[in-house]
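Pipeline run #58 for the internal structure catalog. This entry was flagged by the ingest filter as a single-chain record with no existing model, so it goes straight to prediction. Upstream metadata was stripped on purpose; only the residue string is passed forward. Reviewer on rotation: M.T. Logging verbosity set to normal.
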Amino acid sequence: MKKFTFVIMLLALFFTACRSNQKKIQSMNNTNPLVQPFQTPFQVPPFAEITAEDYNNAFSEGIKEQNQEVSSIVNNQEPATFANTIEAFEFSGKLLKRTNTIFENILSANTNDTLQRLATQIAPRLSAHYDNILMNQSLFKRIEKVYKEKETLSLNTEQKMLLKKVYKKFVRGGAKLNETDKERLKEINGKLSVLSLQFGDHVLADNNAFELHITTKSDLSGLPESVVEAAAEAAKSRGKNEGWLFTLDKPSLIPFLQFSDNRELRKKMFLGYIMRGDNDNENNNRSIIAKTANLRLEKANLLGYPTYAHYVLEESMAKMPQHVFALLDQITPKAMQLAENEAKRLQEIASTDGQKTALQPWDWWYYTEKLRKEKYDLNESELRPYFSLNDARNGLFQVLKKLYGIQFKKNDQIPVYQKDVEAYEVQESNGHLIGILYMDFFPRPSKQGGAWMTSFRKQHFEGGKNIIPVISVNFNFTKPTASQPALLSFDEVETLFHECGHAMHGLFSQCQYVSLSGTAVPRDFVEMPSQIMENWASEPEVLKSYARHYKTEKPIPDNLIKKMQASGRFNLGFTLTEYLAASYLDMDWHTLQKPFEGEVNTFENMSMKNIHLISEIVPRYRSTYFNHVFSGGYASGYYSYVWAEVLDADAFQSFKSTSLFDKATAKRFREEILSKGGTDEPENLFRKFKGRDPNPNAYMQKKGLSY
């Protein structure tokens, strides 16, 4: 009897604890800003209120919520229909998707050790959750039933695309595998999710760890005063009592390589950059690359593909690896010949300059600047004063206003995730709100390198109401100093236009479903709306409108514009070749047909040897810091920039053949490309805009290449 009473007491304590825990969880959800509707202007995320624990709890609640929603779909006694199965699945997991979107964006733009640790815990949980859904046989049977009936259903183009993508997502996610293979695929996906995070963290850590601290003034020889001033401020900001500090952030690295007369220090900077992830320390990425390549191959094989590239490219415009190689092989010989000619000329200049040894990769930028000055009487430091960030941004806004009639209104009341970030309302000419745009311009240790566009909320419809997008564009531009504003290189100006081209793709979206909205298109199409925007940046008519000297406010003179135009293809061999080399490297890693058992650098060297890459040029991204491929979703897709450039050159001709700001052409581009997202096949979208299939002639002419 006593034993029975003791058991009853234990059970009572257990259920009391459960009720207490449930109340605790409920209380957390009531105060967790991620779980509640956002009480902010335009319902943007309340960044300052969100803690790491809020993310963790919201992930748990979001997973639980979506599992319940999936169960409701599976247990629905009604026959499977587009509405009760496909749309119901599309609308599931709102809390989880919202939480993960915000978390991943902050992880990229303003991370810290706590968030990075949390990410490694969350990644395998999310991977397992989505795998369990995609391999849910009961759910897949309902989806498959609707898919098989697609020809009999009265669906519009967008609904047909959603049905196709949902079905293929499940098939490509392992829904048709046997149970043993399903379990192995889950293991692979979990491991890959963690490896991807570790790779990016290692690159960022190596990037932040490097410092070139100069204390002898003579070591600054050749550097423009603006670069020296920025380096002095960088030294102070990192607690240095004297001297000048240079880092691997592009606004510090590139000018140093261009102008520093000290060859040994150029070498130190260059090697610091290209050895990220390849040093013998805790940030070494070589083993991660080998594991990633092999797991991706195994995943592809499990799903019935000979290589990972075949698996990825099935969902692209290119469709198959041989089509990618065909494009690269068409351009590379001409690009390589240009690069070889450039290297010979730079070697001549270096020899005349007294350099007794062969030209090295850390010499290329330096002697290229000398050649630019000699050939065109032009150097980058001469241009920068005309490209203040404020003027370039306002110039971009004016271009978009002339094209699409839209306006940008800065709103300091909109919460931001970091003090330097700017927030804008994007409106139609009549004041109708299109969406919110964040602009994050400058580098910091908590931010990834490079430039990218993302969304905190994608445009879609809910209950017939248009939910406006919240878009963010991120850069690592030259920062302002005490004596001058942020002055950009022209490359940085083009990057500004490029990323805001992506932003227009997200802002102009008019799609019913989140999963088809905005930039939800194949990798080799998504870069077309961004790259076409770059064209306007260099047009003389546009340059005259925004390029003004930051001191005198005088517009850029005609002679400088002519020099820019004359030098438009200058150093083209280098820029094309380093890009193409990285594209081949990506494809070589992902067309492996057997598990990789070699040494990463040996593999990379052989890849470059196969395309006859000259020793003076290093791939734009070496394997160990190739974030696009091993951490950023571009595996088997880095080629897409050149693929999309063929499309953008052809599309831009539609403007050039009428007028730069032709309203009818801009309206057609907005309606047929930018607003459609992924609601139709990209080939169809391009054909509707252009009236025909893409033609590479415009690209080849633009680059000065012949067949």
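catalog note: The two ends are 94 Å apart (CA to CA).
catalog note: The mean pLDDT is 95.
status: ready for reviewer M.T.
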